[in-house]
Amino acid sequence: MNSKSKYTILLISSVLVVYAIIGGMLGRVSAQNGSYQQLSIFMEVLSRIQNDYVDEPSVKNAVDGAIRGLVENVDPYGGYLTAKDVAFYKNYDLFKTPGIGAVLAKPPRLGYPVVISTIPGGSAAKSGLNPGDIIESIDGVTTREMNLVQVHGILSNPLGKPAALAVIKSRRAEPDTINVPREITPPPAIDAKMLDNNTAYVKVPYLATGKTAEVRKQLDALLKKGATDVVLDLRYTAGGDDKEGLQLANLFLDSGTIAYLQGQKFPKETFSANAKDLLTKAPVAVLVNQATSGAAEIVAGAIEDNHRGQVVGVKTFGSGSVQKLIPLDDGSALLISVAKYFTPSGKEIQDMDPQDSGIKPTVEMRQTPEETVEPDDQDVQPAPKEQPTKEEDRQLNRAIEILKDPSKISATKKAA
Predict the structure, then answer these.
(1) Does the 191-322+336-415 domain belong in CATH 3.90.226.10?
(2) Model confidence pLDDT, tens digit, residues 266-311
(3) Contact 135, 167 (CB under 8 A)
(4) What is the residue extent of each domain of the chain?
(5) For strand 199-203 and strand 229-233, is the pairing parallel, antiparallel, or unpaired?
(6) How far, in Å, CA of 80 to CA of 146, rounded?
């Protein structure tokens, strides 16, 4: 048997094993849905490459590429991790691991990581990165072939040396070079204050562990000072701990379903509100935009579906899944999404169709180019001729207006 034949057998065997592992989990390996036919096409292509390519191909690179493509084409939040990637993933913490202080996603249609939000006080925010910015390369290395774990890994090292990012800004053809320091990001604080007309305003920049307890303490103090309604600002609140999202929603709910988890092989797990954890029954409005993602979407979906308050703003990003790490014999591993979050009414927060993904507000506002995360979003409206100042927060003003006079909801929808 010649070397090419050995390489062919090794490669096919490796791909078959990985395909069986993933396909077995996802229920995709069956004669009925054409998987075997697709695999035979792959084998034919492989044979052509082995016999006709100008040079003898690298088996390792071919196997790695096949596995990577198989996993990441199915699951944008998954990936094929090397042993080094696995070690990084197990120890990664946004506020303990060096990085740039940004929450990233890798939408399939883009193929590159995109910034969903930047952490206030972090190096990404201070360096001018914005939601919607596409990171094309890091230190001259393209990010197209990296999964999100690998992207964060290269952004964390070497500490002390700025990461040279080639960034494509919204509506620009050529990337800008931005040097962003690699450093530990400090956890952002909750912003809680009393607005005019006795409205409690609470801004949660990131739903890290313990943040719900902080919200409870500060909001309770405002309620005791005479707050009659609440604005919960979850704009640009991405990532975070799912449990914190469930707990935050429970502050406003004394009964009913907050959300549920379910997957093809993952039994349905329902999260219900506990009356003991209720903080207030005061009218509430939740502010969201396209950079609202993850745990914050659980909160918005729970408030909306339980008719507990109004969700005001722009349709959220659409990210709500649970990943499982599956170790392989050589120290590498597969990271695969095994369940998704659903709102109480059964809406999938992270839908396969980007148009159906995310939480649609009860009161929608026009989205300006400055507010979009995904480039070329069809829902983006031209920016107003006169941009509002920070003091003229359209979403916040509309939310307060609705809280004070719920009859203006229909008028709000027409005006937004």
Answers:
(1) yes
(2) 999 999 999 999 999 999 999 999 999 999 999 999 999 999 999 9
(3) yes
(4) 3-74, 83-180, 191-322+336-415
(5) parallel
(6) 10
